[in-house]
Amino acid sequence: SLKMASDSPESLMTLCTDYCLRNLEGTLCYLLDNETLRLHPDIFLPSEICDKLVNEYMELVKTDSIFEPHESFFTLFSDPRSTRLARIHLREHIVQDQDLEAIRKQDLIELYLTNCEKLTAKSLQTLVSFSHTLISLSLFGCSNIFYEEENPGGCEDDCLVNPTRQVLVKDFTFEGFSRLRILNLGRLIEGVNVETLLRPLASLAALDLSGIQLNDVAFLTQWKDSLVSLVLYNMDLSEEHIQVIAQLRKLRHLDISRDHLSSYYKFKLTRRVLNLFVENLVNLTSLDISGHTMLENCTIPSMEEKMGQTSIEPAKSSIAPFRGLKRPLQFLGLFETSLCRLTHIPAYKVSGDKNEEQVLNAIEAYTEHRPEITSRAINLLFDIARIERCSQLLRALQLVITALKCHKDDKNIQVTGSAALFYLTNSEYRMEQSVKLRRQVIQVVLNGMESYQEVTVQRNCCLTLCNFSIPEELEFQYRRVNELLLNILNQSRQDESIQRIAVHLCNALVCQVDNDHKEAVGKMGFVMTMLKLIQKKLADKTCDQVMEFSWSALWNITDETPDNCEMFLNYSGMKLFLECLKEFPEKQELHRNMLGLLGNVAEVKELRPQLMTSQFISVFSNLLESKADGIEVSYNACGVLSHIMFDGLEAWGICEPHREEVVKRMWAAIQSWDINSRRNINYRSFEPILRLLPQGISPVSQHWATWALYNLVSVYPDKYCPLLIKEGGIPLLKDMIKMASARQETKEMAR
């Protein structure tokens, strides 16, 4: 089912929601006084749509860097006559007191506030306005919601010293929340009296007290006839706790798991405790005891274990107390316990660290509220993906993507998650992934690069991008990827390996893309960045991959893009070219890349006068004899000179070397090349070559152009014959054959 889910296109509802949120002004709203969003008066939206708008808005603000949050977004939902809200999930610092205040007239049924640290006791008061309708409420990680500012009204002298002293609110309770059944108070601040807070609630069905230390939980028995789910994650338990839990006979889900790294726990699980749960909690379908140390051996001796297929039948259970279960559990949490490695575990789903299935179950179960556990589970997945082969690839990818999105600011998850993504997206898994899924991966990788300047995350993210077809698969985020990479390359202190990968990616991104893309990237400072890298490498006298990739990237980005060619000249590119030639006379690859780039510059008529100096012309002429990289360096040098010759005698504004002498050397060079040479070059268009055919000013340029076309169409006919025909090369060649000024050997080749 996961494969289907990840492949199916987005629903129309999702697409419309997304479009409206990105274009609020053009769709649902208008701007009042140029600043406040107002709903158009003729719009009436039911809760199915409004809930989705709010929940998607949260998602966009959190995971899309280009999406701008609106100050007045929540005011759009202030009037229940035009917009209805029922079930909303708000998270983190995006949400403030005034946002909840804005929707206080709504009849909310479900309100999840997760890690909303900016909410204060003002929001507690707002909650009261939902009290008659709320069924489900989460205040997980809202660490300041029980604090108010002291002296908000009458201000004594003390105010000046400390204007906002935070005071704990002691008198708030859930009085009047008559329909509330599901409540999550996870990570509630110390000092709040949980018992008093909850006492007014008549019939709680689910309660989450994660990360709260309560020494007395006897008050829980007031809901022994209604409580079906209880979560006491990271609570240090005692015999008293166990006795109370055993009385909650309606429980279907019990979670007493803990993070074994977070602090010292006195409590140890015993066979007796597990037996007590199995005997008393007869409705139990889900139990989590992850992270617990077993005080005694609860396992069946291996000789008594029925061998053969692993079984989930309670009667065969390798964990002794669970032989008393009436039926297998739906879920059993055994992450970071020794029990998960046993053979027969009586549960359909087990979280643990034994194999891929258990690890994925752990990531799935703990991602939302337990990043500290999730990052360790993802680390295990990373090892599985790296060493073995993932059998549930799509599920693994979806889970890692969700974790990375959910915990954008959690360093551990960003490091382990980005490393796992690298292995999960490599080529052996390629076939199983849809376009949509691969795009989601790219989005979270870019989010990671944006939020984290940390070296490991940056390196993992860059490496993961290398698993994609570039530029095609990154085209939908083209600007953003380039900005992020240039940002990495412009940092003053750089990690060598990241620099190398980033330059490689930059080069690949500007290879074979449309000119408007290249112009846009040029305006972002691409040319300048590459020249700075080259300058640094020159100063260190090193010609490594970074140096070669940087020249290669400049060659690609100047292809048929005059603006970028001009930038290259303006930022003293020619000076660097000469210095590199001098410093690295033997580096063939480097020479090829540099001359390819100068070929692009020479194609721009307005820029050619800048190449017309004795020094440059001498250098190009000498390179005609170069044997570097087959014919490539000689060929490109001849191309540069062919364009310069095409400007005619009057453009030759130098005394040395003489024009005729250079022409002679060009003829000699062309005649020395093997017409069947395989090539290290890629033409997207023949236009710059074809323009040298219909002219009599420079027969040698005409000959170079004809040689180039002849070589390419004879060595690579499938690729270049169609291009020659499409760009109108045939009539140009026919006309040239009739020209008196053309040389005989040129005409032969044209024929």
Q: Taking Cα atoms only, what radius of gyration do you get, to the nearest Å? A: 35 Å
Strand content: 5-15%
Global structural class: alpha/beta
Per the CATH scheme, the topology name of the domain at 469-611 is Leucine-rich Repeat Variant
Fraction of residues in helix: 40-55%
Subunit structure: Interacts with the ELOC-ELOB/Elongin BC complex. Part of an E3 ubiquitin ligase complex including ZER1, CUL2 and Elongin BC.
Domain Protein zer-1 homolog-like C-terminal: 404-750
Family: Belongs to the zyg-11 family.
InterPro entries: ARM-like, ARM-type_fold, Armadillo, LRR_dom_sf, LRR_Zer-1, ZER1-like_C, Zyg-11_UBL_adapter
Word description of this protein:
- With 751 residues, the protein is of the alpha/beta class.
- Among the domains are: 34-148 and 170-195; 469-611, Alpha Horseshoe (Leucine-rich Repeat Variant), CATH 1.25.10; 617-750, no CATH class.
- Helix content is 46%, strand content 7%.
- The protein has 31 helices and 14 strands.
- Strands 3-4-5-8-9-10-11-12-13-14 form a ten-stranded parallel β-sheet. Strands 1-2 form a two-stranded antiparallel sheet. The chain has a two-stranded antiparallel ribbon with strand order 6-7.
- β8 (182-184), α7 (194-198) and β9 form a beta-alpha-beta unit.
- α15 (455-465) packs parallel to α17 (496-509) and α25 runs antiparallel to α26 (659-672).
- The longest helix has 17 residues, at 47-63.
- It starts with a helix and ends with a helix.
- Residues 1-5 have low confidence and may be disordered.
